[in-house]
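User: Second chain of the day. Same drill as before.
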Amino acid sequence: MSKLIATSQMTLVNLAEKAIDRTEVTFWHGLSATKHPLGVYDCGGRDHAFANEFDVVSGKKYTVRIIAQKTKGTINLKGGIWYTERTSGHQFDGLAALTQAGELSEDGLGIWERTLTVPNGKTKGRVYVQLEQSSTSGFSTAYRVYDAQVFDENGQPLVTDQNNFGALTSPMAAPDGTYIWKRTITYYTDGTNDIVWEYSGVGAKGVEVGGRNLYIISKASKGFISMNSESLGGQNSTNKEYTSDFIPVTAGEQFVFQGWVTIAEGGGSWRAWQFYGEDKKKIGDRPTNGGQATVGLQHYTHNITVPNNTSIKYIRVSARLYEDGKLKLERGNVATDYSLAPEDVQSDIDSKADQALTQQQLNALAEKEALVRAEMEAKASIDQLDKWTSSYQAYVESNDQDKKEAEQQLIDNTKRIVAMSQDWEDKKVHWSFLDTYMDYSDDGLSIGKRGNSTSLRIDNDRISFYSGGKEVAYFSQGTLQIDNGVFTKTLQIGRYREEQYSGDATINVTHYLDFA
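Assistant: Same format as last time:
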């Protein structure tokens, strides 16, 4: 019995946009090669007859097989056929213990079966199991059933999908005539998900379903398989031909090759394949098909059988993909829906994880560095502010005394004899220094440069700044007013600091600076 891990999960956190959050893989069991299972059945009572009915012939041998997992208790399964149509005997004739076939899987999953001969007078029946227990003695034992099957003397199933059960907690060897499916659920960070079913086991004779895509996009090469050269032909910029890597094959093996592509006007859905030996040299001719000029979305399917030549070790497929083409090469003779190769799924997950986490880490580091830098600068500013406050308080304390002295000096000066006096009336005084000038009048003092529209004006109760002949800012009565201003780095008011977010130039952030 195979002992593999059934469920794999990868979780990516804190992704800002739609991306893969996690994937879950589980294995399911069923009789159908085209219809995947949907559930399980729990046996916890005594008698259990399953839904699907089938014909039987008296005197013929039939094999009943139960694929199940004991979930509690010690009572063994009994089983047989519950006869729904009969002319004699009882419905439960032939009931007997089932025998475990092979070993249990890691989590107790196993196969129980028995072969029986149908008694006289029976024409129809259903699969039947029994746990020898009652409500009086207590239902101490329970089984979780994944499939209940019945086969004729030739090993052919009497129903193609007995119960449509599923959900294996671990993969197991698929008995002849049965199927193991793999379900992959991809969850995205926006709450959506995708579900992909793939066949992942050994099926009944004559029907082989692979499901797994062997065409790995990340290993494909640009160019096409040429007829007369071992090298690939060059890729056309419009047709966009791609060729797979060397895919291992064995003589007589069957494959299904499919393509989905939208053909533009004047194009064609060309595709081909080629067998190779151990040395990766061509063996035989290049089978090809296509070139049809049908416009629009196309889907083609080819069943390929590896020639009975033991020298053949590899196959490569090649096709025009244009802008949206997809290819799938799978083992078997039944085509399944498109799915990425597992290697491409994992590569996509790894890539998104690396990109998202790396960017997240860089943003976090940048923000942390900016915060540390801001706090250091702010602390320095606070230290300077403390020093200024101390100086200002000293100034206030001495200001009264200084004011008295200044007032006395003003009185003394007014008493002095004027050495020089000039009454300019309504005229102004003008000083010129190369390209700089100063004008003084009873309206105030102006300072500027020749040919420059920017100037400064000081009068009794206002300091004004001019640009283009208009006042754009002024300082008056303890208030600074500016029409328009740009802070290129940071703006801090008290303990709040606003600055540009280092990870996105379109976002501003406000930090509270704690200096405790």
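Residues 20-199 form a domain with the Jelly Rolls fold (CATH 2.60.120).

User: Great, on to the next one.
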